[in-house]
Task: structure prediction
Amino acid sequence: MDIIELAGYGPLKKLLEAAQGGDVTAQYNLGVMYFEGKDAPQDYLEAAKWYGAAADRGDRQAQFNLGLMFYRGVGVPKNLVHAYELFSLAAAQGDERAKQGMAAILREAAPEQLAEIHALGTGSRKH
Result:
């Protein structure tokens, strides 16, 4: 038995192995576990990492949750442009909460942030 299992995190170990193997559902669930601190130590940076992995693979819930983290500045620097980009990915898959998040950002964003957001739609943003 390893230290993770001794600490009572056996389910976490199995989920971590699946997530590292590319299982998008496991990646999303790890994000939830680390964010909430249930069955895993609360770690917002780890949550963002795993939400990001799932979001990159098209998981709309992960896109929304990571967008919310950037919107609120929880565990990651507050970034309305990045939040909007993530929300737009989730909204394109029908996530109504993401659509509401996008509208909130458009109301709150500073003019320079709005310019960046509008550039996202034209494809002129540099990665």
Q: What stands out?
A: The chain has a mean pLDDT of 89.
